[in-house]
């Protein structure tokens, strides 16, 4: 059986890759259609809001993360908590904490809830 940490790492690896490629639509595909998304700006619901948020981010943005906790709440739900450092080309990095709720849809794990908080 795949562990909660493995599931979380797989989803966050794909998210990080899409963020680093500055591909907002690809970032949004890592979220459910009805995902609640809270970055550092007002929240949105759904993939369109996620794509708009990441489209507004600067080129060269990177996201390095470290999983702090991962828990399987049910067969189709994983709760994750990570330390993330967003890197920029023109200013110091921004360390944050990220809480996510992942939901399995078919064979795919997607982010259903995403909330960032500054340290």
UniProtKB/TrEMBL annotation:
InterPro entries hit by this protein: NTF2-like_dom_sf
SUPFAM superfamilies: NTF2-like (SSF54427)
The name this protein goes by in its record: SnoaL-like domain-containing protein
Organism: Amycolatopsis nalaikhensis
Source organism phylogeny: Bacteria, Bacillati, Actinomycetota, Actinomycetes, Pseudonocardiales
């Amino acid at each position: 059986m795949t562990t909660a940490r493995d599931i979380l790492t797989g989803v966050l690896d794909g998210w990080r890759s899409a963020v680093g490629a500055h591909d907002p639509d690809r970032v949004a595909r890592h979220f459910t259609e009805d995902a609640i998304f809270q970055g550092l700006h007002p929240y949105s619901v759904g993939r369109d809001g996620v794509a708009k948020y990441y489209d507004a981010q600067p080129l060269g943005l990177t996201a390095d993360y470290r999983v702090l906790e991962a828990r399987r709440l049910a067969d189709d739900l994983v709760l994750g908590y990570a330390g993330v450092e967003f890197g920029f080309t023109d200013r110091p990095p921004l360390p944050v904490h990220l809480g996510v709720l992942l939901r399995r849809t078919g064979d795919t794990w997607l982010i259903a809830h995403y909330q960032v908080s500054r340290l």
